[in-house]
Amino acid sequence: MGVNIKTIIRYFLMVFVTLAFLFPVWNMISASFSSKLAVEEGRLLIPDGFLGNWERALSGSWAEGLINSLIITVTSVVFTLLISFPAAYVISRYHFMADKHIFFWFLATRMAPAAALVLPYLVIFRAVGLWDTIPGVVIAYFGFNIPLAVWLFTSFMSVIPKEIDNQAFIDGYSLWAYFRKIFIPLCMPAIGVVSFFTWFFSWSDMFFASVLTSFQAKPLNALLLVTLGRVGYGVEYGLASAAGVITIIPGLVLLYWAKTYLSKGFTFGRI
Question: Do 118 and 203 meet the contact criterion of CB atoms below 8 Å apart?
């Protein structure tokens, strides 16, 4: 039986790509358990044993940053779904003046670079008292999450026949009963996709969070920029790695939950 050169090359490339992606993650995990000296508030600290960096990453200002990240991300996902779902339903089911232009505006807004919007947000939020607050960060994320969510929902809902709506109303369903028993279950793949992308942007963003917050509402990602690399001390790689691993865990959990919806969402509905 001859050796298939193409198969060997294919498996070699698969192993190489897998190792290339896993090596940084493995290096970060191993560095999080290091016992390298660290400095905090002018005091020299020695991580307490094997989990010293993890204990620091889960206490004090780091714990507050993690809680802020969770609150900001969950709030962004919930309110993005509540706002974008009915908006997409209206756009997909009814024709009105400038509906195509509004739909294009949603998509064009998502294409705008973050640097073009962060300065206006900063000026407005400082004027109205939303700077360095969790509601301010969530509102800033709405400008990017809602347009994308409406676009994804509309693309999916347009594939669902309108006859299903009419038949349900003829059978005596109210609008809420129709949504709860028929329409929302049909849209679960789209809800999974929108939830994933909204969570991904809100959880991993560092640019908006670092500019629009100072101390009270700073999430974990932005806290990495402020706390690490202080002048004269260098980068605390062990603490940074522990905090980095913590930021990965919720995304992996969400990805595991949404993997079925993601595959269906990308297969159906032109998402």
Answer: no
> Domain extents for the chain?
5-32, 43-267
Q: According to the per-residue pLDDT averaged within each range, which of 36-50, 112-126, 134-148, 238-252 is highest?
A: 134-148
Crossing angle between the packed helical segments 60-93 and 99-111, to the nearest 10 degrees: 160
User: Phi and psi of 211, rounded to 5°?
Assistant: -90, -40
Rounded CA-CA distance 262/152 in Å is: 12
Which is the CATH superfamily of the domain at 43-267?
MetI-like (1.10.3720.10)
pTM recorded for the entire structure: 0.81
What are the residues facing 251 on neighbouring strands? none
91: its two tokens: 């756009």
Measure the CA–CA gap between 200 and 73, rounded to whole angstroms: 9
Contacts 24+ apart (CB under 8 A), 221-228: 221/69, 221/247, 222/65, 223/61, 223/62, 223/65, 227/61, 227/62
The model's pLDDT over 170-227, given as tens digits with 9 standing for 90+, comes to 888 888 899 999 999 988 888 888 988 899 899 988 889 989 998 888 898 888 776 5
